[in-house]
Amino acid sequence: IYMIFNVGPALILQLFGDACTIIALPVALLLGFRREAIGMTSSICRDPNVAIIIDKYGLTSPESRGVLFIYILGPIIGTLYMSFLASLCVSLLPLHPYAYAMACGVGSASMNAAGLVPLVNLYPAMATQLEAFAGCSNVLSSAFGIYIFIFISLPLTEKLYSWLSPVLGRDNSIEFGDFIHGVDGDHNPFGLKMDKLPKMVAAFLVFSVIVAIGNVFSVHAPFLDSLIGMLVISAIAFLGLCIGEIIPKNIPSIILICLIGMFLAIPGVPTADFVTHYASQVDLTTICAAFLAYVGIALGKDWDEFKKIGWRGILITLVVITGTYLGSAIIANVILVLSGSI
Description:
This protein is mainly alpha-helical. It has 16 helices and no strands. Helix 6 packs parallel to helix 8 (109-122) and helix 11 crosses helix 12 (253-265).
């Protein structure tokens, strides 16, 4: 604990390395991607990033197509590549092992573990410290990385795209269809027009029942408790979407949903015991499984468009992971040196 507090500034400031995924944007443009590049290169494309992109641009947008491709491909090749990248960087770059351990915290448990294994093998005497720094960094990245993405990475990527897109890759751009088949072309599919409310409520109810059933089989929780927990979570999400449409400021719905959930669960608030008890009955992996099933259906319906991304998408995935890893490691190392921690 003492060592974590001692290197606190480095752990916090290295989060800004998450914005270094933007180095993949020029590469994506040169390979022929257009607005897909914004979704692909503005983050490491984990669950909160996907939600923000879909909420901002719409499910049918090129940006969403890009972020979904990296979201699916990242865990498949990212885990293996993270281990290789960590080994390569330790061998070639004179950065402190603590900095590399902090850089492993990209918000993905599998990538975090893969990047940590070579460090622990190379520096067994530091194993405890390295594991502590990597774990703490991963938690911070999961909790606060979304704000780096919303307020820094995404706006910066959009601005850089507006500068670079007229001059890079115009002659070899990949031709994609306009929409995912079977989905209308509204900019924001979650816009709460009155004619959409019944469909949204029905979708939340069906999703809640599906997850509750899956929760019974995955963690053996009572069906009724699981269903009530999912209805609570769905109600919070629905309320956040509604408020996002009402307030004049363009605040991402995911932030509003998080704030509502935190407020309702604060000890002392009348709803706290009820919300925390039933929400805790729902296993997060069950929700993710249902969400991934939906993503799979969406990809399957638009598979011809996703096949066009092909090897180019794999290359962009590798550059994105390299950017966030090296960026975080360099920032962490600089802060560790300046603070006298190493």
